[in-house]
Amino acid sequence: MVKSIHLIVGARPNLMKAGPLLKSLRECDDFSPLLVDTGQHYDHEMYGIFMAEFGMGAPDIQLKVGSGSHGEQTSKILYKYEQVLLEQKPDAIIVIGDVNSTVACALAASKLHIPVIHLEAGLRSHDRGMPEEINRLLTDQLADLLWTPSPDGDEHLLASGIPIERIDRVGNIMIDTLVSMLPTIEKNSNSQHFKLTPMTYSVVTLHRPSNVDVPVVLNQLLDELIQLEPSLHVVWPMHPRTRARIIAIGRMDELIEHGIEISQPLGYVDFMSLVSNSRMVITDSGGIQEETSWLGIPCLTLRPNTERPITITEGTNRLITPELFSVSVKQILENDIRKKVKIDLWDGKTAERCIASLKRFFAV
Ligand code: UD1
């Protein structure tokens, strides 16, 4: 019998992972997928544009929860998604990554004894100061089938007592998206739109509360970026949280006066095109650490830890503090050249492995 599956998406980083899986689920006769959108993110630039680019179509179910505190947002999703589950009773749900929608929907389904599958399971920053780490820990405990991207994921799950039978290493699904979109990314002329010469600029993205919500830290980072601008042009597609914080401390005009190029958040193809022609990326995102590693572009991550250590051991990523900012940039400018790396199961075939795993799970 055809199995009904809910695929849950809520925030921007879910969409690069949901795209290829939704496509594979739709192509497989054994499964009938419905796309559930919690509405955690809602702006066109933060969300809608990605759904369109990945050809996902309109969501089948929309919870429209919007922004709020963590407790407010998580509880709204839990409550609204429970109502949906009581009516629909799917055979399983798939949750992705580590956002509030992930843990909220996993909890709603788990309490109703509906199997939960977690895509991108097992990642750990070992830093409970990050809201995402709490979401990862809880979602993995609730999940019935855990799809990991890398061996460290398996190790964390086993160490937390999750039986090996529930763990399936499928690989990095975001790379499926990158592989399939690469021809479009390469044809895109977004860097021309910004009037940029390849390899002469850096791309900055910052949005973690630990970097942008604390004025002392944010001021220090802005000082560093202003100092960097004359030697390496800074292009910064800005997250709404960050924009609001910079406006609040009154420094937006100063950044623009110093030549830093600030834009709205960009869609996937425009953003990846900008990144792929850049000299280096400075970020605090999770996914960008992986994308730059696959593309072979030096990446400086402004965080004390990462849940994606493989990007350091095998990729192009380096963790830095604001104090190490200028010396790390200098080192890259003097030494680092692009180096393509090959990481196991970063091959564009993760969605295929997810479908095979799902068939084993249901024994169909
Ligand atoms: C969320 C995820 C984070 C992910 C990030 C990517 C959690 C705990 N965090 O953080 O893991 O890396 O998304 O963007 O789930 N806002 C808009 N438009 C939108 C969405 C948000 O203006 O479409 C504003 C909100 O009003 C809020 C701010 O952006 O002021 C932050 O949004 P929020 O969803 O709370 O968390 P993110 O920081 O985006």
- How many strands, which pairing sense, and closed or not: the largest β-sheet? 7 strands, parallel
By CATH reckoning, the class of the largest domain would read: Alpha Beta
Beta-strand fraction estimate: 15-25%
Give the full name of the CATH homologous superfamily of the largest domain.
Glycogen Phosphorylase B
Each distinct ligand:
uridine-diphosphate-N-acetylglucosamine
Number of helices: 17
Overall geometric form: globular
Please bin the fraction of helical residues.
40-55%
Low-confidence stretches: none
What structural class results from the helix and strand content?
A: alpha/beta
N-to-C order of helices and strands:
EHEHEHEHEHEHEHHEHHEHHEHEHEHEHH
End-to-end C-alpha gap: 8 Å
Estimate the mean pLDDT confidence. Answer: 96
| CATH fold-level label of the largest domain | Rossmann fold
Number of strands: 13
Placed side by side, the strands forming the largest sheet appear as 3-2-1-4-5-6-7
Q: Any idea what the CATH architecture of the largest domain is? A: 3-Layer(aba) Sandwich
Number of domains: 2
User: Radius of gyration from the CA trace?
Assistant: 20 Å
Detailed description of the structure:
- This protein is of the alpha/beta class and 364 residues long.
- The chain folds into two domains: 186 residues, Rossmann fold; 154 residues, Glycogen Phosphorylase B (Rossmann fold), CATH 3.40.50.
- It is built from 17 helices and 13 strands.
- It has a seven-stranded parallel sheet with strand order 3-2-1-4-5-6-7, with helices on both faces.
- Helix 1 runs parallel beside helix 2.
- The termini are close together.
- Bound molecules: uridine-diphosphate-N-acetylglucosamine (UD1).
- Uridine-diphosphate-N-acetylglucosamine binds next to helix 1, helix 2, helix 5 and helix 11.
